[in-house]
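WARN no homologs supplied; continuing
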Amino acid sequence: MAAQYNLQRHVIGGFLDFIPHGSSVDSVTTSTSIQPDDSPSTNWTDHNMGCVLNVKFDKKTQEDPDLCPVESGGYEEESNTRVVADYIDCTLKTHSEPIFRLLFGLNQELTGATGQVPFENLGERQITGWARFRGVGGSGQALIIAKMEVKLTLMEYPEWSGESAVRPVVRLQIKSNALNDLIDDDILV
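OK structure emitted
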């Protein structure tokens, strides 16, 4: 019998780590061509955005229609559909620094010590960097680890209210990069 992907039985949740480009991690400045390594593990976990409650995969497609002549006369339309962008939408349990930066339209990281001009970023509110998604199984083991260069944006702007369940939804637009990596440890059964 062929191996099966039984995500419904194994993955109980996940965590999202995000390191913006230009961050100094373990004496290295991250960029499109430099991804943080895993030693020590705090290289990533110090940039944790929290528990991922829900994950949705999405894509943007583009139709490329062609009109081809038909032997009997006229034309026949053929359409090719291609994927032009891939997205992962994550519902997070808590807010984190990148969420507040996007909410308030800030151009740089919040440090707590330096005041910034809110809503100074009038362009597209996004942060480019490295994301690491860790799917976690019942006994705490990482079942899947995906490291990708992404554009991070807010998919849904959370309201501020007295409700305890105010959960931000972030969108990771995957950027094509040879350093992107996916490791599955125990998904195949």
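The chain has one domain: 7-184.
OK
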